[in-house]
Design goal:
Elements: H1 3-11, E1 35-37, H2 43-46, H3 51-65, H4 67-73, E2 86-91, H5 98-109, E3 113-116, H6 118-121, H7 128-143, E4 146-149, H8 166-184, E5 188-193, H9 201-206, E6 209-212, H10 218-228, H11 239-249, H12 255-270, H13 280-304, H14 309-315
Parallel strand pairs: 2-5, 2-6, 3-4, 4-5
Antiparallel strand pairs: 1-3
Length: 319
């Protein structure tokens, strides 16, 4: 299902059968409250990232924290009058830490984060989805919160050039409202997607910075495993021996999948009757289990086009 078809199904009004008219009922009010939370993480303390990603995020933080210097004292506001707002696009494969990094980004700025999904915005009544979008921007402004949209390709998809039904107008109106709100918003907005290629070019041009997320390299995998291997876990092998082996052996896995491997390995270790302890064999078995399932599902996808690799990740609890 395309992002446009998905939106049609989510915000379709309850038309009378065969008629492109909404029912005679009062529309529900736009949603006024969204999940605004204190971040649990910061970039410096909790996120394992490559040096390139670290540099990109540091530059984004610097632009926000030093707005007064860049835009006022140096006078750059004359050339960039909309520069008080910052729009970031986190794109890349599933499980590479986009949501975690968004929360940590807010934590490093000392701001709350407002988490928004399509379910928070959708409405079965014509016009209310656009009202909900406007409301969420007002709420974020009032809270001085970082506004985070997950699965953003659904929201930022291409506007429909051929409008054939009322719901198509609703999709276009929603996206036009989002463009307007992004233009005038003076806070921080972060979009996250696995499918950035589906974005409308109008949104792409308004994004301040596109930040790519990739599967972790061996140094990053070593750091991820080190964070997961908390001090209280009893070890049957030397810690550094374990870390070196699993960092090399988990090539191609995302951070989320590595966490799943650790969950499986700990369950294997605790089942040992005498003096349970985590051993390299438990970790390797878990890595083989996760990698094997993903490979099997990928093979099935290439043959039948279903189930998908994404379905495999979800079955493993890593999607």
């Amino acid at each position: 299902m395309s992002s446009n078809d998905y939106l049609r199904s989510k915000i379709r009004p309850r038309f009378l059968e065969g008629l492109d008219e909404p029912p005679a009922a009062a529309p529900v009010p736009a949603k006024a409250e969204y999940r605004c939370v204190e971040p649990r993480f910061t970039l410096e303390r909790d996120v394992v990232m490559s040096s390139d990603l670290q540099q990109q995020l540091a530059e984004a933080v610097a632009k926000i924290e030093h707005y007064q210097t860049i835009y006022v004292e140096w006078g750059f506001a004359a050339a960039d009058p909309a520069g008080k707002g910052t729009i970031l696009n986190f794109y890349g494969p599933p499980g590479t830490g986009k949501t975690l990094t968004a929360e940590a980004f807010a934590g490093s700025l000392g701001k709350k984060i407002m988490l928004v999904s399509i379910a928070d915005l959708e409405s079965k009544f014509m016009g209310d989805t656009s009202k909900n979008i406007a409301a969420v921007f007002r709420s974020a402004q009032a809270e001085d919160a970082v506004l985070f949209f997950d699965e953003a390709d659904t929201l930022l998809g291409k506007r429909l050039s051929s409008v054939t039904q009322g719901i198509d107008n609703e999709v276009n109106a929603m996206r036009s409202t989002l463009l307007i709100e992004l233009e005038r918003h003076e806070g921080v907005v972060i979009f996250a997607t696995n499918f950035a290629k589906n974005y409308d070019t109008a949104f792409v041009s308004r994004i301040s910075q596109h930040v790519g997320f990739e599967l972790p390299g061996e140094p990053e995998r070593h750091a991820i495993w080190a964070k997961l291997l908390v001090p209280g876990i009893p070890l049957a092998d030397p810690r550094e021996t374990l870390l070196s082996a699993v960092a090399a052996g988990s090539h191609g896995l995302s951070g989320r999948e590595i966490r799943t491997c650790m969950r499986l390995a700990l369950a294997k270790a605790v089942m040992v009757q005498a003096r349970p302890a985590l051993a390299l064999a438990h970790l390797q078995d878990a890595i083989d289990q996760v990698a094997g399932a993903l490979a099997q599902m990928q093979t099935s996808q290439s043959k039948n086009n279903t189930p998908t690799l994404e379905a495999a990740r979800k079955l493993l609890g890593v999607g």
